[in-house]
Amino acid sequence: MNVPLPDVPEVRVVGLPQLTTGFDLVERLDLAMHLKVHGPLEPMTGERLAELAETISLRGRGGAGFPFGKKLRAVAKASIRRGVRPVVVINGSEGEPACRKDTVLLNRAPHLVLDGALLAAEALGARTLVVAVTRNSTEISLRAALAERGLSDRRGQQLRARVVRTPERMVSGEASSVIRAANGGPALPPGRRERAAETGVGGSPTLLSNAETYAQLAVAARIGPRRYGHTGLPNEPGTVLLTVSGAVARPMVVEVPTGVPLRYVLEMAGAPPLPQGVLTGGYHGNWIDAVSSHNAVISRESLATVGGALGAGAILPIGPDTCPLGESLRIANWLAAETAGQCGPCKLGLPAAAGGLSDVLNGGGPAALEALRQVTQAVKGRGACKHPDGSARFLLSTLSAFTDDLAAHVLDGGCGRETVGVLPLPAPGYQDLEESIPSGEKLAVDWTLCQGHGLCADLVPELIRLGADGYPALADAAVPVHLRGRAQRAVRRCPALALRIEQPPAEQRPALPATHRRALGSGRG
């Protein structure tokens, strides 16, 4: 039952809107309507802007939660020390299937995001603005917004602005991937840790944050820290954008003040009254149980207290009619296939961890559980980017949150429930690094021919691993286009001719993307 989220789902608000002001009037706020709704924005010095960010405790809303004021000061300091102008980057690359808040902002309120980024650019003396996006609708909206402001990448302009398209992949939204794409390379982590504030786009100090962070900055700059602080909790003032999906009647993006009970947000979306668990923070986040979801409020601190995470603002409940370990295995397989293939913990560790969870579900017993714990722990802290750490966090959280189901699978052969597939994943053939035409292909084995040579697992370990019996075990995931070449090589190299790539039925094949521009839909209902 996997149903991918639309680009722009239904948008709701609790209390008075700030980021979503004007959404009840039009589907997209062009520049004229944006100024009518929000009013003009006066420039600020770098020191005043940093003080504003610190006063309202503004942290990055992309997942890491780094203090924005501290990041702003670091970029300014590096720029002055090196005598070069910095670069400002809006990270709108939402490659995670469960997140749509930045996409909603960039599609419906692009000028609010641009306001915050241009405010920072003016304060820092930046002459380059880069916006990274993943989706067609978002790119169309951003290019239209830049044109409305007379911004482009032409030489001679005081500020050069450009849009960079990144593939719809989990690793593409990582900061170093965005910078590498902006520098003309692939949207992959470079394999070495570098601070964007020191060396980013073009080697210059770079201020990089996600779309919601810049939008929050623009709101606070207009209304001031005192009025901004009247909404939400004293230690985490303002509102938060959440993407609520999973076992809900109405997937939505909702703007809520911090301090609102999580259970209220779940009720609004039509979640089960007593969910088995709620995944907080997205697919690099943590599960919390029904009791914790009932007691928690929307805030970084409150969710952390009950073992959850605000992260990128994704909230995903699951109901009592599905196997939580089976649901988690679907995500683990997808996370394993999302590897950049550049380091052992990601290329080998994540497929091994997903395979370990599959072994647990398929009757591997205590030995399989212990092996899963060991391989997951071994992945942590050793990757070239944060993808292995986030994926390991998700897996370890799964084992901690669903102990009864885990015991049923380890000791009794299963929990007796099927996997419904309520957690959203991309449509077959999500975008790849070089082309955006989907494939939807899957690997399959003819077991009457397979002789267990194991060459396939060596060639594409992201999708195939060898089981305890020496025969291949396939990840239940579509072949990503960026792995298609190696999958085809594995098929050709199979000595027994047992491996093949299956095409999806014609009715399930996604249509090719349209070449003409289309008006944005409402995303409502």
List keywords for this structure.
Rossmann fold; 525 residues; disordered C terminus; de novo design (two linked rop proteins); 4 domains; alpha/beta; four-stranded parallel β-sheet; 13% strand; six-stranded mixed β-sheet; 18 helices; Ubiquitin-like (UB roll)
Summary, kept brief:
It contains 18 helices and 14 strands. By secondary structure, the chain is of the alpha/beta class.
Determine the structural class based on helices, strands and strand pairing: alpha/beta
| Average predicted confidence as pLDDT | 88
The low-pLDDT segments are 430-438, 507-525
Distance between the termini: 19 Å
User: How does the major sheet shape up?
Assistant: 6 strands, mixed
The level-1 CATH class of the largest domain: Alpha Beta
- The spatial strand order of the largest sheet comes to 1-7-6-10-8-9
Report on the structure:
- With 525 residues, the chain is an alpha/beta fold.
- It folds into four domains: 17-227, NADH-ubiquinone oxidoreductase 51kDa subunit (Rossmann fold, 3-Layer(aba) Sandwich); 238-318, Ubiquitin-like (UB roll), CATH 3.10.20; 324-412, NADH-ubiquinone oxidoreductase 51kDa subunit, iron-sulphur binding domain (de novo design (two linked rop proteins), Up-down Bundle), CATH 1.20.1440.230; 429-525, Alpha-Beta Plaits (2-Layer Sandwich).
- The protein is 38% helix and 13% strand.
- The chain has helices at residues 31-38, 46-55, 68-82, 101-108, 110-124, 136-148, 175-182, 211-228, 262-269, 290-295, 300-305, 324-337, 344-361, 365-379, 387-401, 403-412, 455-459, 484-493; strands spanning 10-13, 87-92, 128-133, 160-165, 206-210, 239-244, 252-257, 277-280, 286-289, 314-318, 442-445, 464-466, 472-474, 499-502.
- The two termini are 19 Å apart.
- 55% of the residues are buried.
